[in-house]
Amino acid sequence: MKYTLLISMALCTDAALARAGDDFAESYGEPEVPVARAIAEVMAPRLLHDAVTEGRLGSAISITVAVEIDLRFDKIVLAYRRTGATEFLGRQMREAGSGSFATEIPPAATNGAEVAYFIEAQDKDGHVVATRGSLEKPFVIKLLPSDQPALTKAEEEAARADAADQIEIHVDLRKLKFFVAMVVGSGFGWATGSGDLNADVMVDRASFVGASLGHVAPEVGIWVGRGLVFSLQGRVQRILGTTDIHAGGRTFHAANYAAALFGKATWIFGRGRLQPTFSLAAGLGRIRHVVTFDGLNDCGASHSKPCVDTVAGGPVLAGAGGGLLYQLTQRLLLVAQVQSQLGTPDFTLNFDLGLGVATKF
Length: 361
Fold this sequence. Notes:
CATH architecture of the largest domain: Beta Barrel
Distance between the termini: 24 Å
Strand order of the largest sheet: 11-13-14-17-18-20-21-22
CATH topology of the largest domain: Porin
Radius of gyration: 30 Å
Number of helices: 3
Structural class: mainly beta
Shape: rod-shaped
């Protein structure tokens, strides 16, 4: 999608424009390849923007746009043209949080009957990758006198209803962006308390011990903006190496698994292929660690094996974590993460290391 914009980088002599504090000014002339801009317009839904139709004479007009999560771009540019002008001027829009960008059409451009504008997402070479409006078909804002009568109560309610409908539409679009991951790993943590099978035996001294074989952690979530994911993550732990107790003609088996479920918020930073992450989580369940009780050697069928048991933490769990996402393709990611979990009222402090894959759609 390539076309050429004639860019004027001359020093701006318009005092009113200078006061407006534009980040830069570009002259949007006639494109050499109109078809390229027409193709870019087809991609317009990748920029979510409700057209502004009315503004006040001599006042700045705020313009905001939301960007779809998987759109790759370098900058968002607002192009505007005041009444009587033949060319559009441009200013770079700034991040406003949750995947949105914002800037203002300055008062110097709102001193006529109307002002026209459009929005472009550009790559690092200045090529358009998505657009709302265009050079040929811009949005037009009608400029009203500052002393025009205020809206009636009925008109205000109608405007609020329209705004609510627009918000609903944006939320629905966001819900279409999902995140699914599967991570495998293992962990270690602080074991205290009594054994799950040997309930009358306490751990002699609290210490860091392993979480046995390992665990799987499936996760499903929804993208909110460009860099925030709300998700549910499970943790299913497989335990090996414990010994049974044989007594009174019966066999008592030690725990061989533990499970927990977390609600999780993950912040994703950067726009490159390698993106660091930070997360907070809270949930319910159990995390178990494998311990060997010193001095107990009467377990197993022969009553001669050391007693290897599990100690559980939880069931209330909370923690934080960090990691890296590496984008293999537009939708496939590699995941590396470290997660911590603090358990209560049965205390534990656990750390999990995991590797996995994820997809976004």
